Amino acid sequence: MGRFRLFGANDVNHGSARKGTSILRTVPRLYFLSVTLTFLMLACKGKKVNDIVYGEVPVDLTVEYIRNTNNVLIVDDSPEFGWIVPHSAISQNAYQLLVASSEDQLRNDIGDVWDSGKVSDKQSSNVEYKGTPLIVGRTYYWKVKIWDATDMPSAFSGIQSFKIGKREKGITSANSLQLDPIRPITLKATDKSSYRIDFGKAAFATLQLKYRAIKKDTLVVRVGEQLINGRINRDPQGTIRYQEVRLPVNSRENTYILPILPDKRNTKVGAIALPDSVPVLMPFRYAEIEHAKEPIFENDVVQLAFHGYWNDNESRFQSSDTILDQVWDLCKYSIKATTFAGVYIDGDRERIPYEADAYLNQLSHYSTDREYAMARRTIEYFMEHPTWPTEWQLHVALMFHADYMYTGNAELIERYYEDLKYKTLAGLRRADGLISSDNATPEFMGKLGFKDPKVKLKDIVDWPPAQKDTGWKLATPEGERDGFVFTPINTVVNCMYYRNLEIMAEFAGVLDKADDVKFYTDLAKKVKTSINTVLFDPVRGVYVDGEGTEHASLHSNMMAMAFHIVPETAKGSVAKFIKGRGMACSVYGSQYLLEALYNAGEGQYALDLMTATSNRSWYNMIRIGSTMTLEAWDMKYKPNSDWNHAWGAVPANMVARGLWGINPKVPGYDIATIKPQLGSLKETSIIVPTIKGQIKAVYMLLGDTREFTIEIPGNMKAEFDVGQYPKAKIMLNGIKTENGTLHLRPGKNTILISH
């Protein structure tokens, strides 16, 4: 299978038991034989049968979703533990968790702080601490054992330590910040005293230089993101970064950290400040050094790149389309590189969190690494620091819901439920349920968390707005809004509002608030009906931009499709309209455009957009020289754009969630759904991180047969949708099966779809 092999020896994280679904039949028989033989052997030696251990141990322990707890303070005094159940266990029947005050106690299987005993429960994440009170400043040690699908015990896992810190405002523990020393991929001397350096990728970083000066001197060091004619662009457009720094050197020192000057705009009030222990950072890929009287070698120069805790091996993607592969790599790296601030920010220009940016960042982060703390911290940040766009407020519930689905944890919902009610903007509704931001009073703004009573909500739809509103000379006068016509009752706003009501009905159910379930369920039905009567043109079969206008934009129609508002009878006309508009939205809007296309079963067109090479494409970002996604498709579409904006990294999540259709069906990924829409791809493979472990999948088109190999982690089930192949012959693990939904179990599953 060439480069699409995903399940080789290097990918096995939990031992060698990768037996496929046949293990379901063989495990009980093997265990019976093993038990019998071991009983006889140990009986002869005088051993107790109760001491026998059979199964593989749980691995990848977490406390409060944090994998590496070194240098981390756990601020929840009732933290939640998690672990990965190995494939060979199939599922977990029970667990025993020990927490101790010392490593020695734990090595002797003594949980002097908490011994859960054997708990008959499948839960392998969100296991809440229930021992004696934990003390701030103390370090504790824990481990866990499990009983598998046949109720056979494992040995105890390895030991993980954690330290309790003091809680201030939120309940989310911050993960650690990582520092990667990056060596140059090229260092060229342009003359005896000048050097040009390329680190391969831009990073939020500073520069470390080893230099052996004979006497006091000053080097000129330039760092930047963009090259022009082989040199760093010293006058870049917009917020593309460049800086020249004079670096004093002397004979007493030989290692220097470049004293980068902070930027006034991204260090103002509202910007996220870095810890004092972190030097001033700026995004750069290239460096130039001049006036060097002593030689400089490749090992002398290091890009000190900072980012949040990250494991590159948690996700992977390859396909038969080299452009798609490059786009996915660009987007994954963009998510990693922009995690340096501890919460999701807009980019380097402001370093301010915005709700819409953060939601897109969250989806892509969850799709590329098993990391949840940063999103949860960002959610809590927004409850105190909202921003003004109407739609941005409606993204907060989306963030809560994504976190709930991917983690299964309801703590944030419980803590902020009452405040979240206001974020739905239901208080701005009229009799038919539809809302208008014009109805927001200063009192209502205060309930949203705004401290300044003068701040008002403003519908944004997409960004940037039209040329007449910006004063910029844009490539297209309408900006990124496809000519959207604003009216008080805005279709985009009301589509997002409808989704908020659905989410609140679900959250009310989680918290057993029956009256609220009914209220939000009934209101959601009313709003959906109103959207489909007031804002839908039945003659053209499309959604108009708002009440009182006949104009129909891409945005109104893609939002209705993305949030499952379009009735079956109108899906064809709405999908046709969406496809007819092309990429008439920003990189932010592309999230909802792609979701709309996959919801409509238009996977091929979605693939065409992700692999496009026009100016309005992700490949264009690569072509112009950026190694992180841009704030806009190109500088001509937003002249003040930066080259490090994670909201442009949409394919990082849509390849997993749309192209491969891998999503949690229930909170916490107890059940995954897999609904591939691979279009014209002949081969593709993917690894998707989940809280229960990695889902690994390989696809190959072999003549008229589609072969899928899907590996599901332990303690998870999966539903594979083959409904798009109604007349095909379906084989699951060598057994002919019916069309529709295939039920996959932990381990390797092989699906053959023949025409």
Layout of secondary structure:
Elements: H1 23-45, E1 59-63, E2 73-74, E3 80-84, E4 94-100, H2 103-107, E5 114-115, E6 127-128, E7 139-147, E8 160-164, E9 177-182, E10 186-191, E11 194-210, E12 217-224, E13 227-228, E14 231-232, E15 242-249, E16 255-257, E17 282-290, E18 301-308, E19 316-319, H3 322-337, H4 355-368, H5 373-384, H6 390-393, H7 396-407, H8 411-423, H9 442-447, H10 467-470, H11 491-510, H12 514-534, E20 536-537, E21 542-543, H13 554-562, H14 571-581, H15 589-599, H16 603-610, H17 618-623, H18 651-659, E22 662-664, E23 671-674, E24 683-690, E25 693-702, E26 705-712, E27 717-721, E28 729-732, E29 735-737, E30 741-744, E31 747-754
Parallel strand pairs: 2-8, 23-27
Antiparallel strand pairs: 1-3, 3-6, 4-5, 4-7, 7-8, 9-18, 10-11, 11-16, 11-17, 11-18, 12-15, 12-17, 13-14, 19-24, 20-21, 22-23, 24-25, 25-26, 26-31, 27-30, 28-29, 28-31
Protein name: alpha-L-rhamnosidase
Keywords: Hydrolase
Domain Alpha-L-rhamnosidase six-hairpin glycosidase: 314-654
Structural class: alpha+beta
- Helix segment tally: 18
Radius of gyration: 28 Å
Query: What's the rounded overall pLDDT mean?
Result: 93
Domain Alpha-L-rhamnosidase C-terminal: 661-729
Catalytic activity: Hydrolysis of terminal non-reducing alpha-L-rhamnose residues in alpha-L-rhamnosides
Pfam families: Bac_rhamnosid6H (PF17389), Bac_rhamnosid_C (PF17390), Ig_Rha78A_N (PF25788)
Enzyme class: hydrolase
Characterise this structure.
With 755 residues, this protein is of the alpha+beta class. Strands 9, 10, 11, 12, 15, 16, 17 and 18 form an eight-stranded antiparallel beta sheet that branches. The protein has a seven-stranded antiparallel beta sheet with strand order 19-24-25-26-31-28-29. Strands 2-8-7-4-5 form a five-stranded mixed beta sheet. A hairpin with a 4-residue loop joins strand 20 (536-537) and strand 21 (542-543). The longest helix has 23 residues, at 23-45. Mean pLDDT is 93; it is low at 1-50. It is an enzyme of class 3 (hydrolase). Residues 661-729 form the Alpha-L-rhamnosidase C-terminal domain. Keywords: Hydrolase.
